[in-house]
């Protein structure tokens, strides 16, 4: 039996606004005031630093960040530093996990990876995992970074998830933002994009539309997308 899921695509949203929106939805879902959500969106150029807190993996100084118009946020998800920017599909699932789905943190991470792996397979692209690193890879290049938080419920059993995945869609995103950091603290491997691995021109909005059936299938939902212009 599938469950309802509210899905929104927002073409561009400041990182701080999206983080505030996530926190409000986590609270409302915990209190039973909102359905579970999946937010799909793009951010302006932003670096986010997760709970591992390795500031040395940010290679740009304050003046360079200002010149390039890149914001920096220290946030409460797991993981290290990553980049968000135009041309990348960011997904924030706000899901209530009460134990009935049999998902712990690691199981949830593997299912997020599986959504991307299944979607890539529709293009004949083999997405893989690396046991030592969270995320999805094509060869030795990361195409999707994943970092999440489990928010313990106050009003009912279980957790509400926040943060999520960053799926590189447009070619050139490596030059635009990833060269200013050591992505996720991983020096030995690079990053890639959906356009690079398929050789096809893509839009972020169309990818958001197309990935929903894969998310629904893996997680057992029946959500449909609403486009916020």
TrEMBL record:
Function in brief: Catalyzes the transfer of endogenously produced octanoic acid from octanoyl-acyl-carrier-protein onto the lipoyl domains of lipoate-dependent enzymes. Lipoyl-ACP can also act as a substrate although octanoyl-ACP is likely to be the physiological substrate.
Active site, renumbered: 184
Similarity comment text for this entry: Belongs to the LipB family.
Molecular-function annotations in GO: lipoyl(octanoyl) transferase activity
Signal peptide annotation: none
One protein family per Pfam: LplA-B_cat
Protein name: Octanoyltransferase
Keywords: Acyltransferase, Cytoplasm, Transferase
E.C. code: 2.3.1.181
Note, other: In the reaction, the free carboxyl group of octanoic acid is attached via an amide linkage to the epsilon-amino group of a specific lysine residue of lipoyl domains of lipoate-dependent enzymes.
Organism: Fontibacillus panacisegetis
HAMAP family according to UniProt: LipB
Residue ranges annotated for the BPL/LPL catalytic domain, each copy included: 32-223
Catalytic reactions of this protein: octanoyl-[ACP] + L-lysyl-[protein] = N(6)-octanoyl-L-lysyl-[protein] + holo-[ACP] + H(+)
Primary location class: cytoplasm
SUPFAM superfamilies: Class II aaRS and biotin synthetases
Pathway stated in the Swiss-Prot or TrEMBL entry: Protein modification; protein lipoylation via endogenous pathway; protein N(6)-(lipoyl)lysine from octanoyl-[acyl-carrier-protein]: step 1/2
GO biological process terms, semicolon-separated: protein lipoylation
Site (Lowers pKa of active site Cys): 142
GO annotation, cellular component aspect: cytoplasm
